[in-house]
């Protein structure tokens, strides 16, 4: 069998791996690549004459580890380009992926409207119109894709071909996220592979801990935090209560928390609910300003039986995981902008987590010059995003073509990061016996993180560690 690495190689996003067993082809994940700008993507797609470096019509099955868009975001384009097979994933992953892909389709429609508006203007001036990007898909393509999803349960073996059996194992990280364990019988020999997906953390709000996987011959392991440890070791409730006390109680301030709508928002709301019940916090208004976050929260409620024991017991005792007095879900854009007129101390939770697009941008714009406001970053922000600039201490930022001084307080905690750190990743690898593991492939991380994690693995007796390049194939 042959394994080819087509995404998240020496970078974080765009997970996509092609496994070929005789004439049966399996794609593990099909994520959007956020490392390339529009010009770079166009050049790549034109070179390939496709969004993909392979013919999607020749694929038999897609196995999806979890819903995040850097793992699922190009699935509709597979169907646009001729794929006719099924996408196998867990039930919560199906529900969350549906929300994320429909949200992406809505954003694509806005891009089309902008391009068409520009094209009409150019036509009047006698200039050529801009062609639509190849990777744009609309809700029609999303619905077509979703009709072909096949939800499966954790812990059960499913045969997807005469030679291949797959088992989904809880990975933490996100509701429904999985390690994928493959058993492949080829030429009378059994070979096993484990794709880690994104590895979660122990004791994370709402989510189960990552579960152990059986011994594998080949391990394909993410390395996002391969060279660093989480800085804040306090429980999430303690860390968040400390920030709220200092920013909204000790001074009559406003706390703005940029966050991702799927996963991080639910962890925050659940933690706030617990704090209000146990810490006697004053009745601060909490504005949850993300329609996608609200829809995702409903999915978490629907699959509450799949959350960790603490969350299930909390729900049984208090009935509601996320709703509490003073929580306001903000729906319309007008209501979102009206929050700026609320003069009392409050907490605003809004997407996106890197402050790159989304409603959070106008909250930042309205409060960045307010010394009584605090912007709390709770996750990773990639280079050159607005969040990255704030974390790196820029004195001024530009939002919507307007330059503003950074007078608000900027803070960071990493207790809500959904990724396991170096020690968590090492613990995951150490479930495998080094003398039985034929090779480890490191994916889904910055190149420096991968290199340093490879050294860590070498120090612990794991010698066969590869860092594949895009398009590199291995015969297994």
TrEMBL record:
- InterPro entries this protein is in? Beta_Casp, MBL, Metallo-B-lactamas, RibonucZ/Hydroxyglut_hydro, RMMBL
Q: Which UniProt keywords apply?
A: Hydrolase
Domain of life assignment: Bacteria
Gene Ontology molecular function, alphabetical? hydrolase activity; RNA endonuclease activity
Task: Give one Pfam family, short name only.
Answer: Beta-Casp
Its transmembrane ranges are none
Q: Does the keyword Hydrolase apply?
A: yes
Keyword Manganese included in the entry's annotation: no
Domain Beta-Casp stretches: 265-390
The chain positions of domain Metallo-beta-lactamase read: 13-260
Listed name of the protein: MBL fold metallo-hydrolase
List the source organism. Arundinibacter roseus
